[in-house]
Amino acid sequence: MSGDAILRGSAEFSTCGQHRYRLDRWWSDEPRALVCMRNPSTAGADKNDPTICRLRALLQGRPGIGGFTVVNADDRIATDPRDLDVWLAGQDVTTMKVMRQANLVRLLPLAKAAPVRIVAWGNLLAPGLHADRVIAALSLGGAHPLHAFALTGDGAPIHPLARGRSRVPLGMPLIEWRPAVARPTAPATEQEEG
After folding, report:
1. Distance in angstroms between the alpha carbons of the first and the last residue of the chain
2. Neighbours of 98 (CB within 10 A)
3. Three-state SS string across 88-113, please?
4. Do residues 71 and 21 make contact, with C-beta atoms less than 8 angstroms apart?
5. What Pfam families does the annotation carry (predicted)?
6. What is the pTM of this model?
7. Are 19 and 13 in contact (CB under 8 A)?
8. What angle do CA 56, 67, 118 make, to 5 degrees?
9. Contact of 94 with 107, CB cutoff 8 Å
10. 57 neighbors 170 (Cβ within 8 angstroms)
11. Which of 11, 63, 76, 185 is surrounded by the fewest CB atoms within 10 Å?
12. How many other C-beta atoms are found inside a 10 Å radius of the C-beta of residue 32?
């Protein structure tokens, strides 16, 4: 498919505008890949950023993919992941659990509908219960594989904007990704425990 195809888009934000639940870009009626990163940017329905532009370059032209839906492990908008960490540290545990559970509930139908599920959070999503539950939701409890554009030296799924020797060449096939250490997880629809 030509890089000149018309790119359409949509985005879903919270009423306060501080959380982005999903962002979609599509160029055909074929199914959309699901891409999960760590934190959303300010990109919206009509506004792209470097990550969205790079995702289009990496995904457009792949057979069976007509676009992509971007979701995030945490839905709070933060153009710098350190800002997200500061914000999360200031939240009470109950609020954070409710917010993260709601995000997992939104991920499930998107993961079910996607022809391919791509993880791309680099080294930014720390291993632990939250990461395990995000992985379980995206893979539908391990029933479907997760893919990555490439891996960091530590085996994490590389971010689309990786630079230098880590930059993902256009046209490179996706690779199957598995977390370094698999831990049992509760189903994504259960409430998080203390």
Report:
1. 49
2. 14
3. HHCCCHHHHHHHHHHHHHHHHHHHHH
4. yes
5. DUF1643
6. 0.89
7. yes
8. 80
9. no
10. yes
11. 63
12. 23
Closest CA to 117 of 79, 143, 78, 99: 143
Structural domains in the chain, CATH included, are 8-164 (3.40.50)
CA pair distance 135, 141, nearest whole angstrom: 8
Q: Which amino acid is at 171?
A: G
Phi, psi of 113 (to 5 degrees): -85, -20
Tell me if 134 sits within 8 A of 73, measured CB to CB. yes
- Taking only the tens place, the pLDDT of each residue in 16-37 is 999 999 999 999 999 999 999 9
Which pLDDT tens digit goes with each residue over 74-131? 999 998 888 888 998 899 999 999 999 999 999 999 999 999 999 999 999 988 999 9
- Secondary structure element (H or E) that encloses residue 7, with its range: none
Q: Where are the alpha helices (DSSP H) in the chain?
A: 50-59, 81-89, 93-113, 129-138
Q: List the structure tokens of 135.
A: 């992985």
